[in-house]
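=== RUN LOG ===
request id: a7f3
mode: sequence -> structure
chains: 1
length: 140
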Amino acid sequence: MTFRRILVGWDGSDPADRALRVALGYAHTVGGEVEVLAVFDKPGTGTANDGVTDAERQNVREKFAAVFGNGPARFRAIVGSKNPAETLASFASDHDFDLIAIGRNSSGVGGDGDRTVHELAQLATTPLLVVGADWVGEPE
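=== RESULT ===
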């Protein structure tokens, strides 16, 4: 199976950067497209902008642009009224993505990133690629 539409969950961490680089390398090889989703975790918010300032949105956009420029991936920052895993899973399903790529700190267990990976594996109907810190063969 070839994945043409790839969603990457991105939080600015090294593992998320690594997952994005892997997704971009794969998409380049198969002629696919990558979209990046940064989720502001605001449980219980009722509207799309509750609790997130323009400065917060701008900060995450600038952080993304500093690492990846305005290059080959579309970037979105959204507010999730659910946890990040639920938001990513629903977004991927609602927008017909073929694959979700997400970074993980290590092959060990621990931390919020691992919880998100575990929850996403349970919730997503879209195939999941988990890129760990010990990933080899990463595109340059």
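=== NOTES ===
The chain has a mean pLDDT of 81.
The two ends are 24 Å apart (CA to CA).
=== END ===
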